[in-house]
Amino acid sequence: MFKFFKRMKTVVESELNAALDKAEDPVKMLDQYMRDMAEDIREVETSVAKQIANEKMLQKKYTEAQSMVDKRGEQAIKAVEAGNDDLARRALEDKKAHQQKADTLKEAYVSAQNDSMMLRTKLDEMKNEYQEMELKKDSLKARAESAKTRTKMNRTLSNIGNGTSKQGFERMEEKVLQYEAEAETSEDLRQSNRSLDDEFAALEKNDVDDELAALKKKLGK
């Protein structure tokens, strides 16, 4: 399991580099890799828990077997003191059987205890590696987002500075100048038309005054 985890870590790094080469989304892939590794850790934690439970079970059985060894030894002494050699002999035989069982269980318990310590150590190493990769993932995600932003900005600036954009800008500037010229021309025409109307109005006013003066003269006013 632990060798598999280390192999997976290597595979993750190699596949990530390949993904970057293929222009795949490294942010999504990093998240997926971390989820896979977290799942592996949970599986190992389950295995460690089972191993610890097995260790405790063996410890309990060994303790019980050793207790029977001590009990049969005390009973053999009592039987000898009571002059019952047959009972003492049977107690010693049972003591011997429990002693063999206790020795076997002790050996299994010690082995399980060592395995549990080793598994705990390896699990801690896996968790530390996961934390390191978690930090590295955050750094890589930040770098990826920064690179995307820079690329987008550079493309935008490139579009602004290229010939097509410049020509379009100049064309719009010419249109604005044309609109302004047309506005000034229409204003000049309006002013010109107003002047003609004023002149004709003045002319008509003069004709009325002349007619009024003639009328007064005729009437002797």
Automatic annotation (TrEMBL):
Pfam families reported in the protein's UniProt record: PspA_IM30
Residue spans of biased composition, Basic and acidic residues class: 139-148, 168-177
Superkingdom in the source lineage: Bacteria
UniProt-listed InterPro entries: PspA_VIPP1
Record-annotated membrane-spanning stretches: none
Region entry Disordered, spans: 139-193
Comp. bias intervals (Polar residues): 154-167
Family of the protein in this entry: Belongs to the PspA/Vipp/IM30 family.
Entry protein name: PspA/IM30 family protein
